[in-house]
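Many introductory courses stop at the sequence. We go one step further.
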Amino acid sequence: MTFMILLGAVATVYIVMLLFRVAALALPVYAGIGAGFWMLERGSGYGMSIAAGLCIGAMIFGLGRFLCSSLPPLYRLPVALAFAVPATFAGYQAATGLAGFAVAEGNALNWLGIVGAAVGAAGALRSLAGPPPRGLTSNIAGRPPSSTNAP
């Protein structure tokens, strides 16, 4: 029984961490959902609307990563803020919703929401400006062989 409680606690912490990492993708998700609904209202089918939403979201995320990796630091700020503002809103909503299970209404709930907003914004900035995750890079070529018999 103790093992199940510990396992449940670890799973809960992992899901909350995953929730705040996904909050960094709020702008591409919002744009993809908006594009999908726009195409659906214009008479496209469900399949075309879903495909367009996925393509728009992937293009916005890829464009944001590309711009943050290739532009000078002064020009990265507007791109980073464009991703951080929706992530801040998503982090606030997620933290307020999760804290609502344990905390009654009041200042504590608002402060936990503000902390969640900061975590969401920091996650967006980290995922956008940071190096790509280890799983996305490959080291197939490896290092060039070193010459050990040089004088």
